[in-house]
Amino acid sequence: MKLRNFLLRVAAIFRFILKVLKDFFRPPYEWREILRQCFEVGNKSLFLIGFTAFIAGMVFTKQSRPSLASFGAESWLPSLVSQAVVRSLGPLITGLICAGKLGSNIGAELGSMQVSEQIDAMEVSGTRPFSFLVVTRITATTVMLPILVIFADIIALLGSYLTVNFINKTSFQLYFYEVSTNITYLDIFSSLIKSAFFGFAIGLVGCYAGYHSDKGTTGVGKAANSAVVISMILIFVIDLISLQFINLFRT
Amino acid sequence: MTTMTFPAQQSKTHDPSEIVASIRDLRKSFGDRDVLKGVNLDLYNTENLVILGRSGTGKSVLIKCMVGLMKPDSGTINVLGKEVFSLSAKELNDLRLQIGFSFQGSALYDSMTIRENLEFPLKRNLGIARREELKEMVTNALEDVGLAHTINQMPSELSGGMRKRVGIARTLILKPKIMLYDEPTSGLDPITAIEINELILSMREKYKMSSIIITHDISSAKHTSDRIVALVDGQNRLEGTFDELKLTKDPDLEPFFNY
To answer: With an 8 Å Cβ cutoff, is B253 touching chain A?
Structure first.
């Protein structure tokens, strides 16, 4: 019975994804709502991502310095930090914060709409709630995550530069030169594509959990909770898979 | 168990051509629990049909099946000449525009103001974008329910009775041919409940629509019904006017009328 329920759940998720993809390309398009959701996504997480990325950039630089110094390779610090930030740290920090902040928000919001029959009300008034509520949110998280990752990368590198500058009095020009010569287009684009997948996963999981939440207040709590936990796990899984895939292109 | 109908000379006789919705042998179960066990009923043009029954007898399930929110296990539902479960998604959407559904908890969109709540179906279904036209329609709908002054408020700022009335206004703004009310007076004080009953009657007069009113509130049933179908154990047990049903000796229904 448990296996049957599990398979039924997998089938339901698969149908949900298909419906998202189908409705994504089916007019009328919800441009205004997508823009509103994009603003919500950016506005909700910008400060937190900036703050966390800044601290992470500083801490990572400070932690890495002694190891490099023991090999006499302290000058590699900007190169190491920039590659770590762009390839992994930036997307991962942004993904995890968005999973916590946006995943729970989407799960709880749609969950409470489900519990209070607001989604049913949209359905019976013929207003296509799926495309209005689900497709717009998933599009917004997918589009906004790469933008937030660019922001997080810049702030993390700024934190790293301030640390390096404080310790070694390295100039901004030199730091910037070191960073720009060590980051490739492959690093940048793979990181952005990966973060778009993070965004898709966060939106999808949040919307699925909220849209299918059980009735009652515990249903809303469970929807928010599972949205966060599952999207965090998915972020690590996507990170691992994308790493394997990108390594195929690296010499 | 078959439905018992009271003598025809007491109930108003109906012309079968006036039927706007009919349900035949509707069955629905959740797991092992059979909720609807073969419900049959007809709704006539401009009629107020009350479905009366205890909580958990499947009254809400019945009307949710009528708009395709739930799928029955078997049976047929014909609404405005269309078999609900043989329609395509687009046809079902078109049919839903002709059916209003007032939810038990009013189901107002709590992230939108009252104006936006009422504009939402107009913009998305009728494609109305002109601000003046939207304003006029929203104001008229709110005036119908006596709440024009709440237009810029949020749903959380309204009382339960006001939310119900706004919910009804949002549904009526699309001018449906059939209106489904799910427990319209539950959780309301007696005076507000009377106001809602009056509103149901006045909206019927104004828009000439047929209504199904789901309730366990006998006072509401008395005020709003032309005809009552009593649902017991997932089946329609009794059918007739309020005055006819109050004479019942059915042990499951008698307590309703000895209030």
So the answer is: no
